[in-house]
Amino acid sequence: MVISGLQKLTLLDYPGKTAAIVFTYGCNFRCPFCHNALLVTEKMQDVISEEEVLAFLKKRVGLLDAVCITGGEPTLQKDLRAFIVKVRELGYAVKLDTNGTNPDLLDELLSEGLVDYVAMDIKNAPDKYSLTAGADVDLNNIFKSVELIKSKAPDYEFRTTVTRELHSEADILSAAELVGKGSKYYLQQFKDSGCLISDGHSPWDVNDLHKVCDRLLSLSFTASIRES
Ligand code: SF4
Fold it and tell me: What is the rounded distance in angstroms from the CA atom of residue 156 to the CA atom of residue 148?
């Protein structure tokens, strides 16, 4: 595992649980609004060893409930499965964040019961997926991951970070169709962290975003807004 960061406590990332966050290095996407741009574009700096992370987690047994593994894109890490096994052996629940490009590994992890919660990004409507991800995306992998998560994950969410420049109302409705009705779907308000992959993006007016969310709810999608 190439680990670029460790947040020792979050009360927000894993619904209902106290958790630590492990940030893995590198991503196969280049979303312009990426909130972890340095993990994607910069050379590795201040890498924390897996041993150091596990030693920390060992000391927090009984104090924390879970470990959230995020990125970058964690499924690019060749030894992700082995790392998760070690984390679970300490008694932690595991949440995995993914962009959905590695359904084979996701299937393996879910089939073995190694992940308790999956959060998958839905970048945009299918016809704007590659544009939004800044990469040539194989949509079959995205569709497969969505179905795997819905059929095998004990708990899960899908979420789309929305910007005025990349997402129209029609795009959001189309992205929700990709997720399907009955799955938790969050519209995440874009925030400029000051450290983005590219500039020129802005948030939706919050009232407009609520109107789109209401439209999704009226169409029986399980949608809500996440503002932070
Ligand atoms: S999928 Fe996009 S937002 Fe997520 S880490 Fe990669 S570049 Fe950043």
Answer: 11
Residues of the chain with pLDDT under 50: none
Place of tokens 């990426």: 34
CA end-to-end distance (rounded Å), the chain: 28
Please, what is the Cα angle at 111 between 108 and 115, to 5 degrees? 85
With a 6 Å cutoff on the Cβ, whether 71 touches ligand 1 is yes
Secondary structure (3-state) at 132: helix
pLDDT in tens, 76-97: 999 999 999 999 999 999 999 9
| CA of residue 188 to ligand 1 center, whole Å | 14
Between the CA of 112 and the centroid of ligand 1 the distance, in Å, is 26
CA of 223: how far to CAs of 186, 206, 214, in Å?
A: 6, 15, 8
Residue 37, SS3?
Answer: helix
What is the DSSP code (8-state) at residue 61?
B
pTM of the shown model: 0.96
β-pair partners for 112: none
Place of tokens 């995020």: 70
CA distances 37 to 32, 33, 49, 126, Å, are 9, 8, 21, 23
Residue 179 near ligand 1, beta carbon < 6 Å? no
Yes or no: say if 187 and 223 are a contact pair by the CB < 8 Å rule: yes
> Whole-angstrom Cα distance, residue 96 to residue 71?
10
For the record, the structure tokens of 209 come out as: 């975003």
